[in-house]
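Entry 14. Ran structure prediction on the chain below.
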Amino acid sequence: MHKNATYWRVLTAYRAAAPLEHQRHGTPHAPGYWDSNLNRPDGVTVSVKALDVLSNVAVKYSDEGQKREVYHYQDYIFPIDIRVSGNVMYVLVSGLAGGMTNETRLIVFDLATRKTLHDLRIDHNDL
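Output, structure tokens:
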């Protein structure tokens, strides 16, 4: 983990971004989920979908046939927060990597260029 200028700039931008609504399926013990539509200035709608357990985070653009994975689930690291600011989506994931060590990552995805800008390992205490 490198706490350089990019690290702090990305964390500051993440904190300022608006969270997408995290919902529950009926009961308090059911998995939570995100299911949001973002309307882009170019008229394209971006659908964001994820569960908060054992789940990928995916986006689907209204002008494309296939969804894109922003985060691919791995090793007990789950989505815990999704935020948006302008053209940028922030996906915070955290858990026990390999069931052994705590790991928190922040994925920064550009909704305009449709590409990941950063995938940073971060110190959970800096949130």
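Residues 5-126 form one domain. Will compare against last week's run tomorrow.
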